[in-house]
Amino acid sequence: MKNMDRLDDAFMLLFKIIEILQKSGVRTLGKKNVNLLTALTYRQQRSLFIIGDGEEKVSGGIHQKDLGKELKMTKPATSVLVENLVKKKLVSRNPCPSDRRSLCLHLTPFGKKTLDLIKSNLSILRTKLLDDIPVSDQNAFVRIVEHFQEKLNEIM
To answer: For residues 9 and 56, what is the distance between their CA atoms, to the nearest angstrom?
Structure first.
């Protein structure tokens, strides 16, 4: 088999794995939860992680500008992202204890539940898919996925 054929097959298999994971997620997580998780973009899910981590470090929450910096997003794009998370009732904006003129982001109880579900699902999938793969190959996988992200950012 030619190298390009193997690459095409690998990509198709990767997409098939994603499809299988989504279907198995319905069985383990319930359709409503899977619909919620698949409706969230990567940046929205990543935002929940960042805001959740920020709340663990600082009780006052995380500034919107810090979220934008972490995600490498412009201020307007970050505003739209946060507004969507607020509309989905995943995040709330509250006055910052240190600066009443600015707002800090917090996970709502529903946002915390959603983040816990995402973390749990990722842990299960990571264990099932990577358990018998050497750490060096896991690190190579991470490098390849990060490379894909960089290239996709360039062409999108």
So the answer is: 42
